[in-house]
Amino acid sequence: MVGPRILVIEDEPDISGMLQFYLESEGFEVELIITGAEAMDRLATDPPALVILDYMLPHHNGLTILRQLRETAAWVKTPVIMLTAKSSEHDQVAGFDAGADDYVVKPFQLDSLVARVQRLLKGA
Q: Where are the domains of the chain?
C-alpha cells in the first residue's frame, strides 16, 4: 500500500532525488516539480497530502507559490514545509507569514524532515 502523496517542489536534482528516494523508502508517494511555473500550474489540480517547497526556484519563488497556494480553496489546508538555504530570521518569518507550517534550513537531516512530515500529516 502506498502512503500519502507528497509534492516536492525543488529545482536541485541532487536534493529532489534524495528526497524522493528517502520519502518513498518511508512509504510515501512522491511527485516532483522543478520550476515555479510548473508549481503554479499544479495548483489547478487536486492537492497532495503535503508539500515540501523550496524558497528559490526558477520562474516564481517559493513565497509567491505559497501565497497562491493559500489563496486556492482546495489547497488552503494542505500542510507546507519550506525547505531552503535561506536561513535568516527575516526569511523564516516571511515564510511563516506567507503560510508555511514549518521551515527547514538546508543542509538538513532526512530523519528530522520525515518526522516533521509525519507530525504535520497527523494534524491534517
A: 5-123
In the chain, which ranges are continuous DSSP H helix? 13-25, 36-42, 62-70, 89-98, 110-123
Other C-beta atoms closer than 10 Å to the C-beta of 31 total 13
CA 26 – CA 58 distance, rounded (Å)? 29
Among residues 6, 21, 18, 53, the alpha carbon closest in space to that of 34 is found at 53
Question: Residue type for 7, please?
Answer: L
Which is more confident, 2 or 57?
A: 57
On the question of pLDDT at 123 being above 80, the answer is no
Exposed / middle / buried, residue 65 (Cβ in 10 Å: 0-12, 13-18, 19+): buried
Tens of pLDDT, residues 77-92:
999 999 999 999 999 9
Question: Could you confirm whether domain 5-123 is CATH 3.40.50.970?
Answer: no
C-alpha cell recorded at residue 50: 503535503
